[in-house]
Amino acid sequence: MLKSDLVATLVRKNGLTQKQAELAIESIFESMTSALCRGENIEIRGFGAFHVKHYDGYQGRNPKTGERIEVKPKRGILFRTGKELRDRVNRGVDRKA
What we know:
The chain is α+β, with helices and mostly antiparallel strands. The protein has helices at residues 3-14, 18-37, 83-91; strands at residues 42-44, 48-55, 58-61, 68-71, 74-81.
């Protein structure tokens, strides 16, 4: 599914105009992005949670030359599905294997 599919769904199901739906989706994504950039976690009940994980810096090695390099600290984003979503997805699986 693409962002344009989300916009089309809002237009179809809620009677919004194309512009209103685009603005709603952009506002949601911008709010989520801002929260993650501030280091906040996002939890959407029944769907899942986005967590910001902090990674410490360390001494790495270039595998090609063997040269030691400094890897700077960084942050990554992890997503963990909610139980309702996980159960719903698994119900659709054909278990013939």
